[in-house]
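Suppose a colleague, Dr. K., hands you the sequence of a protein chain of 155 amino acids and asks what its three-dimensional shape might be. Before reaching for any lab equipment, you can write down a predicted structure in token form. Begin with the sequence itself:
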Amino acid sequence: MSYENVKKYFEDFDLVERVKVFKQSSATVQLAAEAIGCDVRQIAKSMCFLVGEQPVVIVAAGNARIDNQKYKAAFLQKSRMIPGEMLEEYIGHDPGGVCPFAVKPEAQIYLDVSLKQNEVVYPGAGSENSVVELTLDELVRYSAFKAWVDVCKEI
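The predicted structure, expressed as tokens, is then:
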């Protein structure tokens, strides 16, 4: 259902042809990069946290990971990831398909500055074998993000 919601989301913007479905899994950064044939830094991975009781999705470059000190400075608490079995409840997507599109209204989206190293990015599209190809400007336009943050460091 999550994939269908994302597909419909992009139909509304006349960008459904950018949604790619693979026979193999694209659920991890490495698998997605291999399926697409791109650099891992171009994968726009979505990491989900609770800030208090507020669900938050941080979208970062595939070659970045959360820097705990930066995260605490930005959100005023230690990072607390949403357990995989609760992602559907909080975000509206299952593990491996989490993306910044067609999320539950309570979920806040943040884009990490690590994404700015790319002109084209590939966030997930709601299933463990789908992505959507977007320019960075399109990600900004269509993700309904709240703010840019600097909470990651390069791997």
